[in-house]
Known about the structure:
The protein is of the alpha/beta class. It has four domains: 7-131, 3-Layer(aba) Sandwich (Rossmann fold), CATH 3.40.50; 149-313, Rossmann fold (3-Layer(aba) Sandwich), CATH 3.40.50; 315-394, Helicase, Ruva Protein, domain 3, CATH 1.10.8; 407-460, Homeodomain-like (Arc Repressor Mutant, subunit A, Orthogonal Bundle), CATH 1.10.10.60. It has 19 helices and 16 strands. Strands 2-1-3-4-5 form a five-stranded parallel beta sheet, sandwiched between helices. A five-stranded parallel beta sheet has the order 7-10-13-6-14.
Amino acid sequence: MPRHSPLILVADDDRAHRLMLTTLLAGWGYRVEEAEDGLKTLELIRAHSADLILMDMRMPVMDGLQATREILSYNPAIPILVMTAYSSIPTAVEALKSGAFDYITKPLDFDSLRLSIGRALEHTRLREENEGLKSQLPLLHSEMIGKSPPVLKLIEMIRLVAPSEATVLITGESGTGKGLVARAIHENSPRREKPLIAVNCGAIPETLIESELFGHEKGAFTGADRVRPGRFQAAHGGTLFLDEIGDLPLLMQAKLLRVLQEGEIQRVGSDRSIPVDVRVIAATNRDIRKMATEGGFREDLYYRLNVISVDAPPLREREEDIPALAQHFWTHFARKNRKNVKGITPRAMDMLLKYSWPGNVRELENTMERAIILLQGEYVSEKELPLAIQGPDCACPEDEPFDGAQIGTLEDMERAMISRIMKEVSGNKSEAARRLGITRRTLKLKLKRFGEDSEDPRES
């Protein structure tokens, strides 16, 4: 057996059960050691580490809960899978609170066991590789999350192009994080101490885009009551990020080309040229090379922008990054919404991994925000995921209606959740706020916004 195969320590006082597990795990390709009680488990871990521990809860000398606490206080990086009977699930939950990775119930389902072991080992590998990645790339933006081959290739490309002054064209589907790539390039460049100014070319009316980019003089048009510098001047010495460059009107494309070639701008209403020192990074989710051949985009501007091309991969090509991205987002939104979230259930994670993510990372981010808003417990489950991600085979319990919260905008879902909780507590705002994990004042403001505010005579 290869020396590098993971070592699993089986801690169980039932000799027959240990023998069954060690035989099974060895057949799956793992190295295995055994311990008959919690104290022996702790001694083995102190002697030499393991990659994972399968810990029974009921053992003599030192039970599984105490052993879990002792081991994790010694080495918190070891994932522990707790094995427990249904009658001892509360003890297993205590082990989770103490830092165990997950629990599985006896009699063991071998498919679930194999999946849980794989997930625990992958979690450890992901953490180690991300730490290694951070140490290799200390300058990269902290939100560059991932260790899949497409992401590692992207990061290496960023490392190569960031120190240069060349224009960069970032391509990729909507929601793949092109803005994050632009920020990483800027923050790894010699211009990182200067501004990074972002402009969404598709969000600015055609009549205002020239003034937005280049600025205008007082009196240049109706309403121009003062001189206004544009985004190019704001980015002087730094980087200008032109997002959705494919939506830029043809007339503005010609003027942008001139600026890139000459390094000068002219404000609207002025014939005076102003030098600007700006590195331009552009991004698009459209095929502007094809647009250029068909006349929808200036070919000379395309080649001027496309000195270096960087592609942001879609999420379906980097599915192994989904667990880390999901954790990043749920941690962020849990903090933002003041909720105590400990993780995600295996079934919910499996759904995330199997979904095709047409909206890419942005859709995953929105999904996690939605889940945290709807969450009432400590673990995100399939109940908090949209129906599209749950899939056609997922049937939600009929005795747990979601009052339409499975669809609609985040505001719709928040309104439905608050309405549901208010009904459950008979309109008691203090109790509703406690269940939702928000303050009573925040709840009143939300109810007022939804047009549902009314005073509870019991609280006056």
